[in-house]
Amino acid sequence: MENLQIRTTETGLHVDGFPDAVKLVKIAGSKASRAADLALHKHDLQFAAQCLERLSVTPHEDPLLQQALWFNAIVHFIKCFGGGVRSALDADAIYTGNDLAVESYRYFHELRNKHIIHDVNAYARCTPSAVLNREDCEYKIAKITFLSRYAHTLDQGPFTNLTLLVTAAQKAVELEFDALCDDITKELESMPHGDLLAHDSVTLDVPKLSEMYGSRSAGNSSKRPKKVMPKR
């Protein structure tokens, strides 16, 4: 992902590297909203890919770090396919024609929703039990115990599958994002310079603690791309 250097000036924000620039203006519309969502998806997918890359060189002697990287990769990958205010990626469209990839995606979707984030399925169990002494002992119960069992989901097969899924999603997002940016550029180029200059300047807002409990704006378009959820 391209990182631009942005600094604050007396007239607003300035993007370094563009000596002829006079203003950083806000743009709106359904294409801009979708592209903004894709930019956030690009960030999450890049983070997932970085977790997997780091995981590939993390020694087996550090299982805690391995598990943290593995779970983070899954969570940030599945985050792109539904929930929240973003327009979601469409797994069936990205992995169309590849039944194995679709099934693998659904596995990670269920793993995230029913094991990692929520405790729903049988991948995590705990059985209450009691250690019972011989009949002639002073105490019948020696110890109350709880036998916890967690499914092991990190091995070479799932690791390879998730890596391939993330890579394919990144390529699909890049293609759609670049196409939208090209369309937006053409539309803006057709407008008079004065109209472009009249657009509001971009500002940086620091999130408030109170905003933790609400939802941010879903964008400028009243009609956003439909979220496609995986089939059950």
Structure overview:
There is one protein chain. This protein is α+β, with helices and mostly antiparallel strands and 232 residues long. Helices cover 44% and strands 12% of the residues. The protein has 6 helices and 4 strands. The protein has helices spanning 30-55, 63-78, 91-94, 99-116, 156-189, 193-197; strands at 6-9, 12-15, 124-132, 141-150. The strands form 2 sheets. It has a two-stranded antiparallel ribbon. Strands 3-4 form a two-stranded antiparallel sheet. A hairpin with a 2-residue loop joins strand 1 and strand 2. Helix 2 packs across helix 4 (99-116). The longest helix is centred in the last third of the chain and has 34 residues, at 156-189. The model is unreliable at 220-232 (pLDDT under 50).
Brief write-up:
This protein has helices spanning 30-55, 63-78, 91-94, 99-116, 156-189, 193-197, and strands at residues 6-9, 12-15, 124-132, 141-150.
Neighbour order of strands in the largest sheet:
1-2
Structural class: alpha+beta
Poorly predicted parts: 220-232
Percent of residues in helices comes to 40-55%
Alpha plus pi helix count: 6
Mean pLDDT across residues: 88
For the termini, the CA-CA separation is 33 Å
The radius of gyration computed from the alpha-carbon positions, rounded to a whole number of angstroms, is 24 Å
Q: What form results from the Cα inertia axes?
A: elongated
Largest sheet: 2 strands, antiparallel
Q: Kindly estimate the percentage of residues that lie in beta strands according to DSSP.
A: 5-15%
Number of strands: 4
